[in-house]
Amino acid sequence: MTATTRSDRRPADGSPVARVCVDVPLAHLDRPFDYLVPAELDEVAVPGTRVKVRFAGQLVDGWLLSRADDSGHTGRLAYLEKVVSPEPVLAPEVARLARAVADRYAGNLADVLRLAVPPRHARVEKEPRDDEPGPTVAAEAAAVDPRGWRDYPTGPALLRALTDGRAPRAVWSALPGEDWAARYADAVAATVAGGRGAVVVVPDARDLDRLDAALTSVLGPGRHVSLSAALGPARRYRAFLAARRGQVPVVIGTRAAMFAPVDRLGLVAIWDDGDDLHSEPRAPYPHARDVLLTRVQLAEAGALVGGYARTSEAQLLLETGWAREVVADRATVRARIPAIAPTGDDPQLARDPGAATARLPSLAWTAARDALRQDHPVLVQVPRRGYLPSISCADCRTPARCAHCAGPLALPSAGGTPACRWCARVAAAYACPQCGGRRLRAAVTGARRTAEELGRAFPDVPVRTSGREEVLTDVPGGAALVVATPGAEPVAEGGYGAVLLLDSWALLTRADLRAGEEALRRWLAAAALARPAPVGRVVVVADGALAPVQALLRWDAAWFAGRELAERRELGFPPAVRMASVTGPAEAVADLLTAARLPADAEVLGPVPAEEGRERMLVRVPRARAAALAEALHSAAGVRAARKAADPVRLQVDPLSLF
Asked: Collapsing DSSP states into helix, strand and coil, what is residue 276?
């Protein structure tokens, strides 16, 4: 519906002022603007609709946030030009959430709303619809059976609280072999049985499919929708509208679902919150965990943060008393875990002196051989994909680099030609610049080369790979070798007889604050797929004295998270403090920080080199001063935008990685 262009327009009789968020990505314009609602748009111009308005002489998109009787603007107000669709897709609760997220991350409301509401699909909006809300599980379901949660002493109480309409907040450490999707389905069913809705966010499509099947089994078909960017525009928008119209009480999905509109929200849940897929790569770079926990505060809903591992952020929720711990007792843990052993401890080195340098020590070799003899599959986790992702000179061991961009050279296959991983240029005539040698050797071995070597070692055993090119969901329970990169491990029928965690140095030596935490998370996720001891065995090729390895051996993610948080608190690293990174050309970074009225106790760190021609500076404040930091940086960004500063600056609060 388009407004007329006649000069005799008259405003609507009731609440003639519309407060609009214009879709303009400039920090100094991050506020609502008032427009008059023409009489012909009075009925369709409702809060939550998409509109078009004149702004700075151009027709731009916007969101109608609210209607008012008058405006504080003393000048003449322009009229709304068009209501794009009468569908109120922006729920009031989501609008409040988007504003809170924008403030937390020093971002613009318009940027957050683009993440919160998927693009319009006109054909889907015109499809026949049932205006009646869908049937609720509460009307048909009895109390949820807490049997699956009985291995956790406080698990049944969590379900009772959700069924009774209370708002429990829990951090859950899952046991190895746990059907986490079924446990989440139980929690969601308990919430819906209490007459409320739920939002559950998982890292990737494999986890989403698993949770979707579990919820269909517990709730029945048609009781929930899945939201994911991979669905495509039409299916995603159709699922979004079903949730917005109140036709389903439950929304699950990847990070695209963190803003999903749900009536009477009673539970938000996130699985494996340490996965970097939960972090949005677009401004203002919100993390799904933080968005969901903000929803908990605004909607007074329950929260469930779960995983095999535990992040420092989740540990902080427990130490501050914001959430309660849901864990199994040590006797249950010992009964469920596989036999886990490192290869770098003294007894192993005494039996096998080469274990310190071997990529596949005898302990790992024996574990794989025994499992295959018992007709059980073996999982081999390799941190690097490809064939030989890094090579060096066979004579002097100098890393092989590209002559054009100095990027690392890699071999795509056994008979392939070296090529640069950065610019893709082929280096067919490579010669070492140090010694002139032309022979190459492996510096880092990838998943495909590992599969080739294991195939030669066990010639009668099928070898499967799961990684970037093809990610397997599950594998049969018979003897087989499954080589997978972290995060791509398929589930084996009955569990794996052995799990080998190779090249641990590749995870532990990353130049990242979260290297140890990430290594343990990857290891626990793979080890959780093994059968319990004494049948299941896990071998980690690492020194047993390392803290992440100790946590793996004892299956004690809580101990490691507490230790990690204590160290970060002592060193002044997140989440014990709040940090922001400012990245851009040196002059632009200095300009923004000069314009920012930072809190008195703010500490500026850096600069450090970032990508070519750019630098990064960090600003650190106590957590209590987080809001003041975000406001100061956002205001400074607005000052630069108003001055039409030419050099862009990337502003990120609580960056996932600091180094």
From this structure: helix
Residue carrying structure tokens 């996720």? 525
The token duo for 384 is 């690097």
- The residues, any chain, with a CB within 8 Å of residue 548's CB and separated by 6 or more, are 508, 516, 517, 519, 520, 523, 560
pLDDT in tens, 71-99: 888 888 999 999 999 999 999 999 999 99
Count of other CB atoms within 10 angstroms of residue 462: 14
pLDDT surpasses 70 at 300: yes
First to last CA, the chain: 51
The H or E element spanning position 119 is none
Q: What is the pLDDT of residues 219-232, one digit of tens each?
A: 999 999 999 988 99
Name the 3-class secondary structure at 492.
Answer: strand
- pLDDT band of residue 450 (cuts 50, 70, 90) is confident
CA dist 566 → 319, 562, 573 (Å): 11, 6, 10
Residue carrying structure tokens 């949770």? 211
Question: Taking 80 as the threshold, does the pLDDT of residue 311 lie above it?
Answer: yes
pLDDT in tens, 546-594: 999 999 999 999 999 999 999 999 999 999 999 999 999 999 999 999 9
Which of 339, 392, 174 is closest to 270 using CA atoms? 174
Strand ranges inside 224-374, DSSP E: 224-227, 250-253, 265-271, 302-307, 324-326, 339-342
Beta strand 17-22 pairing with 58-68 = antiparallel
- How many helices (H) does the chain have, and how many strands (E)? 19, 28
Taking the CA atoms of residue 539, residue 543, residue 546 and residue 548 in that order, the dihedral angle to the nearest 10 degrees is -20
| DSSP H or E stretch at residue 411 | none
Euclidean distance between CA atoms 602 and 256, whole angstroms: 33
Residues near 544 by beta carbon (within 8 Å), at least 6 away in sequence? 342, 344, 345, 550, 553
Q: How far apart are CA 272 and CA 306, in angstroms?
A: 6
Rounded to an integer, what distance in angstroms lies between the CA atom of residue 654 and that of residue 620?
Answer: 10
Find the mean pLDDT for residues 456-482. Answer: 89
For residue 580, CA distances in Å to 499, 604, 622 come to: 39, 10, 12
Contact 299, 169 (CB under 8 A): no
pLDDT surpasses 70 at 240:
yes
| 614 phi/psi in degrees, rounded to 5 | -130, 160
* pTM for the model: 0.89
Q: Where are the beta strands (DSSP E) in 188-276?
A: 197-201, 224-227, 250-253, 265-271
pLDDT of residue 658: 64
Distance in angstroms (rounded) separating the CA atoms of residues 355 and 13:
82
Element (H, E) at 383: none
Tell me how far CA of residue 527 lies from CA of 115, 177, 208, in angstroms: 35, 9, 21
Local structure of 478: helix, strand or coil: coil
CA distance 357 to 367: 18
Long-range contacts of 508-514 (CB under 8 A, 24+ apart): 508/542, 508/546, 508/548, 511/659, 512/657, 512/658, 512/659, 513/568, 513/573, 513/574, 513/657, 513/658, 513/659, 514/274, 514/656, 514/657
The SS3 of residue 236 is helix
Work out the percent of the chain whose per-residue pLDDT is above 90: 68
